[in-house]
Design goal:
It contains 23 helices and 13 strands. It is mainly alpha-helical and 552 residues long. The protein folds into 4 domains: 3-15 and 121-278, HUPs (Rossmann fold), CATH 3.40.50; 283-343 and 358-369; 372-435, no CATH class; 449-545, Arc Repressor Mutant, subunit A. The longest helix is centred in the first third of the chain and has 16 residues, at 49-64. The chain is elongated and about 110 Å long.
């Protein structure tokens, strides 16, 4: 068969020489040992923890070695493309401090652009044409219906599904048959003519899993679709070579495709980048573990963490805990260090499924947020509120001084021990809401409403905003004593039957009346932040709505 003529018929016209691509995309001028890594998502609009998992690993490996991390968009499948998806990817990863050096919508060294695969179509066709000329690729005229029947037959026979061996019906078409199909205008794809034998094994060094064994590829995979656009397998091999990728960290689901990729690099004559296949993120589901699922688990999406307002550093700390086995020990010794100082290594990544624990992430988030200053916390909450909060929540920041006082109190800043009440921005904004909005509901009182009413009336009569904490508490004790409560806790403990309760019960009434909640930080400080008029107004409202205004 004249493969030169066939190549011209299938892909007519002049294409740049393959040597010209080598000149156009030269080896990068980087220090010895510098790694070039990439993140290469499809523009589907859904970016998940697995993407972040791989992105952190690729970013750390590249930047610790003095190398490059770039963003490539694999948009060969237009049916899956979602408008705004690329910006969503960039924004989501930027939130978690993933810093790209170049790439789609980022810019950088234009030498290796474009970073959208559809913008590189001519390159792929040039390489496909060369493979056809060499007899390593051929046209396939099988329809979708024929391929589906083929899969059904293989499934019925319990054989491996795919286009290979005796099932590769177009692999050995005669020259006459090929041209007859072309003259009839039959649509076709271009397939790789595999030279592999599944009986043969290949030893492969995985940068994460170590030495593994895979079978040779015998699948005649599609490399160019009927519209002339490449498949992922073909495009990624060419792009990783021309963009001078040295290391690919990707999910272990790609292990099944590794034999195909090994053969493609060999057929194209490229030096293959090193691969590392990271473990899947698992979830405890009853007695078993399973992979996190897009359909079942909202926490798989990165948008979940942004909308809920998880602190970015906390998420990164937790992901590093999962990514490198020695990170947790390092973090305990260096709790406030720049995370970029951690000596990240691909060889320290887990070789098997890793359990993702949202409760542990929440604990880390509490710890990380407790380290912030009031100003830092305010900035974090304001940023979250501007993007995800309600109009009312954005209004909380109208009085900056008040917000700082609120956060200082709620975080225990200046006290003996920092509080760890905040988990996420959304939870924190709900936690502090009573400072900015009067209670819409009250937690249940342990005291009957008539007693509650008398306590609140006494409070309104005695309250002086200018009292310091000691004077204020002395007044609360007086209210307690006047209403049958023990003013001193030691008296109540000695004779609990002799009192309605203790001064703590009176403080609880005042706390619920002021905030709607039974548990809050220091009540005197809360009332100082609210101001006298607001404290009195809230007591009056509680007298009506909490206690029913009764005086029995």
């Amino acid at each position: 068969m004249n493969y030169q003529l066939l190549a011209e018929r299938l892909l007519p016209g002049e294409y740049p020489s393959l040597a010209s691509f080598e000149e156009k995309y030269p080896p990068r001028a980087l220090p010895k040992g510098a790694e070039v890594t990439r993140l290469a998502p499809s523009p589907t609009g859904f970016i998940h923890l697995g993407n972040l998992f791989a992105a952190i690993a690729n970013e750390r490996i590249a930047h610790r070695s003095g190398g490059i991390l770039y963003l490539r968009i694999e948009d060969t499948d237009l049916k899956r493309k979602v408008d705004g998806a690329v910006e969503a990817v960039i924004n989501a990863l930027k939130y978690f401090d993933i810093r790209f050096d170049e790439g789609a919508e980022i810019g950088g060294d234009e030498t290796y652009a474009p970073w959208y695969q559809r913008g590189r179509a001519e390159i792929y066709r040039a390489y496909a044409k060369r493979l056809i000329e060499e007899g390593r690729a051929y046209p396939c005229f099988c329809t979708e219906e024929e391929l589906e029947l083929l899969r059904e037959e293989q499934t019925k026979k319990k054989e491996i599904t795919g286009y290979y061996g005796k099932y590769a019906k177009c692999r050995d078409l005669s020259e006459e048959e090929i041209y007859r199909n072309l003259d009839a205008g039959k649509p076709f794809v271009i397939r790789l003519r595999s030279m592999g034998n599944p009986e043969n094994k290949i030893k492969f060094h995985d940068e994460i899993k170590g030495e593994i064994t895979v079978t040779e590829n015998d699948q005649d995979v599609v490399i160019l679709k009927s519209d002339g656009i490449p498949t992922y397998h073909f495009a990624h091999a060419i792009d990783d070579h021309l963009m001078r990728t040295t290391l690919v960290i990707r999910g272990e689901e790609w292990l099944a495709s590794l034999p195909i990729h090994i053969e493609l690099f060999e057929a194209l004559g490229f030096e293959r980048p090193r691969y590392g296949h990271n473990c899947s993120l698992m979830k405890q589901d009853g007695e078993t573990r399973r992979k996190l699922s897009k359909r079942k688990d909202p926490e798989l999406s990165l948008e979940f963490y942004r909308k809920d307002g998880y602190f970015p550093r906390a998420v990164k700390v937790y992901m590093l805990t999962l990514l490198n086995s020695n990170f947790e020990e390092w973090y305990l010794k260096n709790p406030d260090a720049d995370l970029n100082e951690f000596p990240f290594k691909a060889s320290k990544m887990s070789k098997s499924g890793t359990l993702f624990d949202l409760d542990k992430l929440s604990d880390i988030s509490k710890n990380e947020l407790s380290k912030l200053s009031a100003e830092q916390m305010a900035a974090f909450l304001r940023g979250w509120a501007e993007e995800f909060g309600t109009e009312a929540q954005r209004g909380f920041f109208a009085d900056e001084e008040k917000m700082l006082r609120v956060l200082s109190l709620c975080m225990g800043i200046g006290g003996k021990k920092r509080r760890k009440d905040f988990t996420t921005a959304s939870q924190a904004m709900e936690f502090i809401r009573y400072f900015f909005e009067r209670p819409a509901a009250y937690e249940e009182l342990r005291t009957e409403s008539a007693v509650c009413a008398r306590v609140l009336k006494d409070f309104l009569a005695r309250y002086r905003y200018g009292d310091d904490a000691q004077a204020w508490f002395a007044s609360v004790k007086e209210i307690a004593a006047a209403n049958g409560f023990a003013a001193e806790m030691k008296d109540y403990k000695a004779n609990p039957q002799g009192y309605r309760g203790s001064v703590a019960d009176v403080a609880e009434i005042l706390r619920i009346a002021t905030t709607g909640k039974a548990n809050t930080p220091d009540l005197w400080t809360i009332q100082q932040i609210l101001g006298e008029a607001e404290v009195r107004e809230r007591a009056e409202l509680a007298l009506r709505d909490l206690c029913g205004g009764e005086d029995k």
